[in-house]
Amino acid sequence: MPTVCVTDDVGRGGAVSGDVRDGLLVVRCQLGEREAFRELVGVWHAPLRRYLQGMAGSPHLADDLAQEVWIAVVRGLPRLRQPERFTPWLFTIARRTVTDHLRQAYRAPATPLEEAAAVVAEGDELSGVLTTMQIEAGLSELPPPEREVLILFHLEDLPLAACAEVLGVAPGTVKSRLHRARRMLRTILAERGYEA
């Protein structure tokens, strides 16, 4: 079996393109190679967790949701018929997992501890530079569809077509959501006194 060069730089380097690399890893996983699954998790765990944290708003919750997603991946991987489409498939599972969690959380009231954890610390601001915390705080105020499209497109670097597949909408809809989301985030950050 050929050797595949896997890097942490998802989709931006290595000996093969990201889709081809992922497709080869998926096929190896389907053949029962445990090391291939470790490599797949190594490549995709950080981007997956970033997406989940952006959608759920909590690092601890993102860890829990990531475990649920990887369990679903293990169960569904043998049935994945297009191994080169692993990325949209993974983020579709993640999206459903987050949606299910948010639906359940909506039915149960938040505890004061969860509300306190959502408060963003102030005073560490760098002059003229938006910190990750400031951007994340702005993202958390966006409606879920706009937040999700920004995370997938800008933070996870998914191409427009893959975003459309994950979200289950047309590429034109992704473009309009991106435009609206950027405008909304700019407004939110400007209201907080940040130049966006």
Automatic annotation (TrEMBL):
<protein>
    <submittedName>
        <fullName>Sigma-70 family RNA polymerase sigma factor</fullName>
    </submittedName>
</protein>
<dbReference type="InterPro" id="IPR013249">
    <property type="entry name" value="RNA_pol_sigma70_r4_t2"/>
</dbReference>
<dbReference type="InterPro" id="IPR039425">
    <property type="entry name" value="RNA_pol_sigma-70-like"/>
</dbReference>
<dbReference type="InterPro" id="IPR014284">
    <property type="entry name" value="RNA_pol_sigma-70_dom"/>
</dbReference>
<dbReference type="InterPro" id="IPR036388">
    <property type="entry name" value="WH-like_DNA-bd_sf"/>
</dbReference>
<dbReference type="GO" id="GO:0016987">
    <property type="term" value="F:sigma factor activity"/>
</dbReference>
<feature type="domain" description="RNA polymerase sigma factor 70 region 4 type 2">
    <location>
        <begin position="133"/>
        <end position="185"/>
    </location>
</feature>
<dbReference type="Pfam" id="PF08281">
    <property type="entry name" value="Sigma70_r4_2"/>
</dbReference>
<dbReference type="GO" id="GO:0006352">
    <property type="term" value="P:DNA-templated transcription initiation"/>
</dbReference>
<keyword id="KW-0238">DNA-binding</keyword>
<dbReference type="GO" id="GO:0003677">
    <property type="term" value="F:DNA binding"/>
</dbReference>
<keyword id="KW-0804">Transcription</keyword>
<dbReference type="InterPro" id="IPR013325">
    <property type="entry name" value="RNA_pol_sigma_r2"/>
</dbReference>
<feature type="domain" description="RNA polymerase sigma-70 region 2">
    <location>
        <begin position="45"/>
        <end position="107"/>
    </location>
</feature>
<dbReference type="InterPro" id="IPR013324">
    <property type="entry name" value="RNA_pol_sigma_r3/r4-like"/>
</dbReference>
<comment type="similarity">
    <text>Belongs to the sigma-70 factor family. ECF subfamily.</text>
</comment>
<keyword id="KW-0731">Sigma factor</keyword>
<keyword id="KW-0805">Transcription regulation</keyword>
<dbReference type="InterPro" id="IPR007627">
    <property type="entry name" value="RNA_pol_sigma70_r2"/>
</dbReference>
<dbReference type="Pfam" id="PF04542">
    <property type="entry name" value="Sigma70_r2"/>
</dbReference>
